[in-house]
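User: Need the bound-state model for S-adenosylmethionine:
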Amino acid sequence: MSATNYLRRRNEIEEYFDRTAADAWARLTSDEPLTGVRATVRAGRDNMRATLMSWLPQDLQGARVLDAGCGAGQLAMEAAARGADVVAIDLSKSLVDLAAERAQNLPLKGSVDFRVGDMLNPPGGPFDYVVCMDSVIHYDMQDFQSTLYRLISLSTQSCSFTFAPSTPLLSVMHAVGKLFPRGDRSPAIKPHSEQSVYKALSDYRILNSKRIKSGFYISHAVEVSG
Ligand SMILES: C[S@@+](CC[C@H](N)C(=O)[O-])C[C@H]1O[C@@H](n2cnc3c(N)ncnc32)[C@H](O)[C@@H]1O
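Assistant: Bound-state model below.
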């Protein structure tokens, strides 16, 4: 990992999720009705979160979980509702504050410790399970790979993450710049081929793998043993 490259990218991501898109993320992760592209993205994300949660034990009482790049904290809260003690960390202070505020109103069997910071250095590891939903999709292969290795090393049971698969359609959409709604200055998603991801994971045991597609949302989840 080139530290300069990683830090530059991390700053762009923080700027985007903490300021540019914080309101859009608040809406996307709320119960507010959505239409069009955003509705398909929400449906795809709900499906992805349900998939990742289905790979964890139903009863998480006593389990320690890291939600790496927790955003507005949806997965962290679902894991805590199932009894887990979760550390939920994100670069975006505004999303972490929103997540903590939403969690206050929920009856959680476990707990969530919300933190602002880099998921590479969460407090209190190792964790039984590390889950990283759509949080490494903006990194190029080098940073993607070293981030994954770090997250896997923080898990004792399994580490689940998602990547943006490079499909011909996605490549075309990227090329014509139509993937995101106008005015949404998202740092570009960096798609990776399934083959290159499996190659990077050749030293690990793959436990699960599933691709979810819903309108403009396309993401591929993999679980590896810790
Ligand atoms: C697409 S959002 C997904 C949020 C959440 N996982 C979800 O699925 O709702 C990506 C999140 O990853 C966070 N992120 C990216 N790189 C990170 C890093 N190095 N450390 C902590 N958070 C990071 C971003 O700030 C952003 O909130």
